[in-house]
Amino acid sequence: MNFMINKDQLLEMLNFHKYNYKLYSHPPLSTVEESKKLRGEIDGPHTKNLFLKNKKSQFFLISCLESSTIKLKNIAKTLNLGNISFAKEDYLKKILNVAPGSVSPFGLLNDNEKRVDFYFDSKLNEFENFNFHPLDNKYTVNINKLDFYNLFAIKKIKINIINLEEIYQNV
């Protein structure tokens, strides 16, 4: 059986590596609309994170600014992903160990079989910190960009940088 981490173990990992982050506690936030109510309290870019699946049972996580428009057909065509749709809830738990509304790149730390291809919109790199749920939508972690990239490098999680604006222009 594969070991899966939870929020507390994730925070222990961030502390162990001495990563620069802030933890915010708040009511459960499952949607971008709900999270917009906290603007001003949590600095940095707020994100939306989409866990997707194609008919070949390949999985994808796309992280982008919350204001980004998502055009699944354009993304699928440009990245040659096949026909994609949102993955069902049971896959969220089985692969990322998260519930709906808690999807974030940190869930990839639980993808022990490396089943998920991770796509990260380049617009996020314009910021020094990123905001993601730490496997629990009652919290937000604001993490330094370099520490985020370092964590994923240590854990051998490949980050595919994409530019959503270019994808939409070229289709």
What does this structure look like?
The structure is a single chain. The chain is an alpha/beta fold and 171 residues long. It has one domain: YbaK/aminoacyl-tRNA synthetase-associated domain (YbaK protein, Alpha-Beta Complex), CATH 3.90.960.10. Helices cover 27% and strands 25% of the residues. It contains six helices and eight strands. The chain has a five-stranded mixed beta sheet. The chain has a three-stranded antiparallel beta sheet with strand order 1-7-6. β2 and β3 (59-65) form a beta hairpin. It is globular and about 40 Å long.
What's the mean pLDDT score?
91
Strand content: 25-35%
Largest sheet: 5 strands, mixed
Structural class: alpha/beta
Number of domains: 1
Shape, per Cα inertia axes: globular
Concise summary:
The chain has 171 residues and is α/β, with parallel strands linked by helices. Helices cover 27% and strands 25% of the residues.
Task: Indicate the topology.
Blueprint: H1 7-16, E1 21-25, H2 32-35, E2 47-54, E3 59-65, H3 72-79, E4 84-86, H4 89-96, E5 116-121, E6 129-132, E7 139-144, H5 145-154, E8 159-162, H6 164-169
Parallel strand pairs: 3-5, 5-8
Antiparallel strand pairs: 1-7, 2-3, 2-4, 6-7
Features:
3-stranded antiparallel sheet; globular; 171 residues; YbaK protein; 27% helix; 25% strand
